[in-house]
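Researcher: I'm preparing a figure for a lab meeting and need a structural model of a single chain. I don't have an experimental structure, so a prediction will have to do for now. The sequence is pasted below. Please return the structure as tokens so I can convert it later.
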Amino acid sequence: MNIATIGTGSIVDAVLAAIGRLEDVTCIAMYSRKKETAQPLASKYGVGTVYTDLNSLFADPNIDLIYIASPNSLHYEQSYQALQHGKHVVCEKPFTSTKQEAEKLIALAKEKNLFLFEAISNIHLPNMKIVQEQLHKLGSIKMIQCNYSQYSRKYNDLLAGETPNVFNPNFSGGALMDINIYNLHLVMNLFGSPDSIAYTANQHTNGIDTSGVLVLKYPEFIAECVGAKDTTGMNFVLIQGEKGYLQIVGGANGCKEILLQLGQEPAETLNAQTEANWLFYEWQAFRDIAASADYNRCYELLDHSQSVMNVLVQARQKAGIVFAADHQ
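Model: Understood. Here is the structure written out token by token.
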């Protein structure tokens, strides 16, 4: 499978490192508005072609799949164009800006019989399977707490009067879409859609959320998801049941290690991940799904992404966070 990338940020660097460890996946092209921006990354990973024109990238017959890691607000348009040109697509999280955009992309991918994936790494991790397998030992779940807080260097730019993309409503930024989304994907991957939600956020004067608390109400339990780009915190996931608790050490992003505590028994440490670069696992999943033409699994993942996007939109509405994409 020959892939091309759109974007030159650190996430693209990490993805190229991950696929370098996979058989049958090769990056042959990159897109950047300026060739000199992409050239160092292209040289590092031996990528032969750098495009500065998107249409030329989409028209390249040698490209099977396009990985999109552009600003959030461009995800829909670029994914749509790639699908229209007959390319499979892996689009970075957040999948789109609105639920309508997600619906249109999914419909187009199905119409053209193409694979479409949201690049949300944690739901593909081996340790997430461990969590799924161990949940029943906790008894009736009553409370879930998630915290993923990471101070952004771009926050300093925001405080200095600039408006970086990640804190810009016009680019569909904010803490919910950029960082709390990991917590949301994890909880909904385990338990499905909540009955109701509430989102309370710390907001900049431009209306964007720099941090916030998302509360998901399920019939038998409550899940609290904290995401912050304006502070650093202790990142963790804690799932509490009547018979014990399960802790995901390091938080929802990497799921580095699992601690299982049942009653008065000694805590058990569980870990099935051997790859330091956890993006390896999601790309391994994408490769295997495509290689086996497993459209059913692809559509299951798309249903999940659509459900998450529906909650993200509800959460923004609760907090009064408006994107430019909401008016399109």
